[in-house]
Amino acid sequence: MNLQSSRRYNQIGIDRIIRLKWLEHTAYLSLAGNEAPAVKIALQEYLQGAFRSNDRKVRGSLDKTITILMKIWLRPPPELCSLQCKGLKLLSQLPRKDRIALHWGQTCAVYPFWEAVAAYVGRLLKLQGTVTASQVQRRMQEQYGERETVSRATQRVLRSFVDWKVLKETPKKGIYTSGLSLAITQVELISWLTEAFLRAHPDGSVALRAILDSTSLFPFRISPVSADQLVAVSERLDVLRHGLDQDLIILRNN
User: Fold this and answer.
1) pLDDT digit string (tens) for 57-98?
2) What angle do CA 33, 39, 45 make, to 5 degrees?
3) Measured distance CA(84)–CA(78) in Å, rounded
4) Where would I find the beta strands (DSSP E) of the chain?
5) Inter-residue contact 136 to 158 (CB < 8 Å)
């Protein structure tokens, strides 16, 4: 693993609210064959209404938001380019209801901080049915350091989850409950999500059951599949037999 790749797992990176419709728009600009400079201009025009202000901080937030959007679907880290290309191809083929899984997986891979927040949110929902912002912020500070930037970034990721409708606000401020629960049945999409999950972790190999049951994929109900099914539709996944009933999914070196 090179330095640039390893840095991705330790950085926050995603510290803005990222609305689902913005990510969808960015992906389609990329699918249309636009180069990065043209996409940046198009996003500035598209988002200017949401960031209309004379405040320099607001204008700075626009630029940072565009940088994040483009890094996810236009200029990902080199090791994620194949994931991005396959994700865009699937995006053009899948119905709208399934596209959220692609945006989720690509965001997790490019920004593992998003995946880490999601994993803890999913765990709390499973254990107690609700999530408080303070619980998640404390957990992220334990993992990334007790900095105000960590707390703010966590809050913005949670607000993004609400925008994506995978979390719902309750009448009590700072407390959330489960939102959308989307069934994922297509093997090719499950295989792609599996790769995205692996790319969000430095290990490079995880038990299939751990992936399918991962709390970081809490918005999705993933149909049972075999390791052989996943590998058959992916050039970048392989399986390592580990005991009679334990298949490890690994990334191929390609």
Assistant:
1) 555 789 999 999 999 999 999 999 999 999 999 999 998 888
2) 135
3) 10
4) 130-132, 167-169, 175-178, 182-184, 205-207, 220-222, 237-241, 247-251
5) yes
Cα torsion 155, 158, 159, 160: sign: positive
CA dihedral 159, 163, 166, 171 (to 10 degrees): 70
For the stretch 50-59, pLDDT in tens is: 886 545 455 5
Q: Which two tokens stand for residue 62?
A: 């626009």
Q: In terms of DSSP bridges, do strands 205-207 and 237-241 run parallel, antiparallel, or are they unpaired?
A: unpaired
Enter the DSSP assignment of 75: S
- The helix (run of H) or strand (run of E) holding residue 70 is helix 56-73
Domain annotation for the chain: domains and CATH numbers: 3-107 (no CATH), 113-178 (1.10.10), 182-251 (3.30.420)
Beta bridge partners of 241: 247
| CB-count burial class (<10 Å; 0-12, 13-18, 19+) for 84 | buried
Dmax over CA atoms of the chain, in Å, equals 63
Query: Cα 197 to the chain's mean position, in Å?
Result: 9
CA 54 to chain centre: 32
